[in-house]
Design brief:
The protein is mainly α and 239 residues long. It folds into two domains: 10-138; 185-228, no CATH class. Helix content is 55%, strand content 3%. It has eight helices and two strands, in the order H-H-H-H-H-H-H-E-H-E. It has helices at 10-15, 24-40, 52-66, 83-99, 108-112, 116-152, 156-178, 197-207; strands at residues 185-187, 226-228. The chain has a two-stranded antiparallel ribbon. Helix 3 packs across helix 6 (116-152). The longest helix has 37 residues, at 116-152. The protein is rod-shaped. Residues 210-239 are annotated as: Disordered. It comes from Chionoecetes opilio (Atlantic snow crab). Residues 25-131 form the CCDC93 N-terminal domain.
């Protein structure tokens, strides 16, 4: 069974560096961690110039930020940290991972010593949570991105559709104006409006050229009480 403890030689202790155990199983797990992070979308993990510590800690920080988990600690990560900064950062990462409810247990010294066998299940859990969060909020993010794009840009098809809609709207307004109600008759000034709601409705309809049935119990109005407003009209009967 592999030990999870890190071993410091006097030379490395003076230099503030952690001795990375060269073990075949650890190397295999480290490669699996890098492949898992790259598959999840953290493409910086495949940069050959980065140290394994930078790849692992950077990937864990990226997963925590992708999970959109509300934390009260600063997870600012940059490459080539000092030993003190590495210790502080790994302690904060372990604290956040525990608060997120990660089942696998992880200690700061295991991250510092690149104990890939114990780091791998935690990375696996973080990647799973990150993918679930991305799937949950992916549609909303995509819709918001499309909305922001359409606020400032438009493709030729949309411009053509908008131009077609403007033309159709103008044609529709012209047709509605042509076939809208037009007044053909107007009651002469000084004439008295007929009594009764039915008669008033009937005469109003006649003013716009609609021949409706005469309401019952009404007598024909004498001719000459209306004036024709249509083309070629000389007079007519209203109500």
């Amino acid at each position: 069974m592999l030990s999870t403890e890190t071993h410091l030689t006097p030379a490395t202790a003076r230099e503030g560096q952690v001795d990375v155990r060269e073990d075949e199983d650890q190397s295999v797990k480290l490669s699996e961690i890098v492949e898992l992070l790259v598959a999840a979308g953290y493409f910086r993990a495949r940069i050959k110039g980065l140290s394994p510590f930078d790849k692992i800690v950077g990937g864990m920080t990226w997963c925590i930020e992708t999970c959109n988990f509300d934390v009260d600690v600063d997870l600012l990560f940059h490459e080539n940290l000092t030993i003190g900064q590495k210790i502080a950062l790994t302690e904060r990462i372990v604290s956040v991972v525990r608060s997120m409810g990660c089942p696998p247990r992880l200690e700061p010294h295991q991250i510092q010593g690149l104990d890939a066998i114990h780091i791998f299940p935690v990375i696996q859990w973080l990647v799973k949570k990150a993918l679930e969060t991305r799937e949950e909020f992916g549609d909303e993010t995509r819709k918001f991105a499309v909305f922001e794009f359409l606020r400032h840009h438009s493709d030729p098809r949309q411009q053509q559709q908008q131009e077609t809609l403007r033309q159709v709207g103008g044609t529709l307004a012209s047709v509605q104006a042509s076939y809208g109600p037009k007044r053909r008759w107007r009651r002469r000034a000084g004439s008295c409006a007929p009594d009764g709601r039915g008669v008033r409705v009937h005469t109003t309809v006649l003013e716009y050229g609609h021949l409706a049935r005469r309401p019952p119990n009404t007598a024909a109005a004498p001719q000459g009480e209306g004036t024709d407003e249509g083309d070629g009209g000389s007079g007519g009967e209203v109500g």
